[in-house]
Amino acid sequence: MSQARVQPAVSKWSELEALAGQDVGERAYVERLLELWCEAVVADGAALYVDRAAADAGPRGDRGEGGDGFVRELTVGEGSFPPTLEPAAADAPSAYRIAGGLLLARPAGAAGDEAVPPPEPHTLLLTSAVRALRLRHQLKRQHFQVNYRVVELESVYEVGLAIASTLDLDQLSEEILLRAVSLLDARRGAFYRREGDVYRLDRTFGGAAKDVFDATDPALEQLLGGQDGSPEGLIPGARHLMAVAIGTGKRPRGLIVVGDKESRHGVGPFGASERRTLSLFANQAAIALENAQLHRQALEKERLEREMELAAEIQRQILPDPTAAPRLDGWDLLGWNRPARQVGGDYYDLFRRDGRLLFTVADVTGKGMPAALLVSTLHSALHLLLDRVPLGPELLSRLNDHILGTSAANKFITLLLAELDAASGELTYINAGHNPGLLLRAGGREVEELEPCGLPLGLLPGSTYRSGRLEMRPGDLLCLYTDGITECASRDDEEFGEQRLVDVLVELRAAPLEDVAAGLDCETQKFAAGQPQLDDQTVILVRRG
User: Fold this and answer.
1) What per-residue confidence (pLDDT) applies to 535?
2) 511, 519 in Cβ contact below 8 A?
3) pTM (2 decimals)?
4) Calpha distance 74→495 (Å, rounded)
5) Can you list the domains of the chain with their CATH numbers?
6) Among candidates 346, 476, 461, 343, which has minimal Cα distance to 420?
7) What is the dihedral angle through the alpha carbons of 433, 435, 439, 445, rounded to the nearest 10 degrees?
8) H/E/C letters for each residue in 265-322?
């Protein structure tokens, strides 16, 4: 070989060697190799194509819609080459298949239908260069995916922090939907809450959505699984839908639905990366919803506790001070009460009016706040009526009409009201369906009962009542009580009963009334043996000295 022919070849290989050694010259190296190949096959122009499977992988790791075939990577020389080729193009005479791609030549002075002789050195170098080029592309895509994943996680984290700081449920629902739509560049969106076996629409973005649908709808299962299909009319007009459940387990708290992802090319479907992003966000939303729900429950509990404290304070003001019972020469008086809850439905009072001593004990159906409110109504109405009407059947009839008109249909009051003439010991009483008062006669176990004289208050309109009378003699002990005493239950579900109450009164009849009440309290608690108190307990004790 002559020196004149060797020198250009050496120059070309030196040029290639120099390009191959440059980090930024990889594409120039491949382009120069393609030019040399083009010269070797005596072509006016040539193009390098790579497999579409590698070229079409999106920056987020989603596969495109290209399928098989080739995508143009480089061109040299003259002539135009299509940007993509179908797999059949590899069989063309002017095409030469290499690993990972395709070389396509435009032979000089020909129509492109002549076979291309394979110049082995150049082809081998191009094959190796294509492999390196593909590897560089893959590394670049992977680097982009890692960076995108970091940005994605940071976005979800920031969004999670934003919604986690919102404790108002209504505001949180709005925030969840707006953040989800913004995070995914969605044109439409809807947020649903789970109520039993249905999803009910809470709010929408960008248009209307279906109000309610069955949580077991098979079409919903397909949508949640990323398959085609969704409940009919879920987001009318949306062409592409994606949904994820908020929360884990078989009964999620809600559902986020987004529709029509916006891009520079218009609207399109959501990919696997968007579904992953929305799932991560839904996990954050589930925690935020749980916190907001717990916060609402805590506020509601706090509100109820404040109301109960207020009701308890009102009731303490209504009930008399146990240490400040009216004083009568020759008489001992005591009132005692213990509610089953913070406020109760038992009521008692001891007071003097126009030289008379009156005392009453009553029991309102139920317990807690409703019963306490009805106790307040009874207290006010009783004292107002006693200013106008003397103790007797008319007083109870008016009181019955008042309670009937101001209370719920299922509420009523049992009441025993008595008036004592301290000088004579005469006791006048009316018992409206209450437990019979017990009058323990001095010196024995003889007990007289203050039997009911009519129906409970507030039970029926037009109820009539009659009064009863008896005389308290020296040493007699009168006990008025509510059913929380006699119905106190043991672990065997046995009631304390009236007979045990009488036994305690007989045993402690001569003791100070404070000791009598304390002894009765001790015996009922001992009988209950640690069982919770289920009903209010109230006692009035009156003894003639």
Assistant:
1) 84
2) yes
3) 0.56
4) 98
5) 3-142 (3.30.450), 165-294 (3.30.450.40), 319-544 (3.60.40.10)
6) 476
7) 140
8) CEEECCCHHHHHHHHHHHHHHHHHHHHHHHHHHHHHHHHHHHHHHHHHHHHHHHCCCC
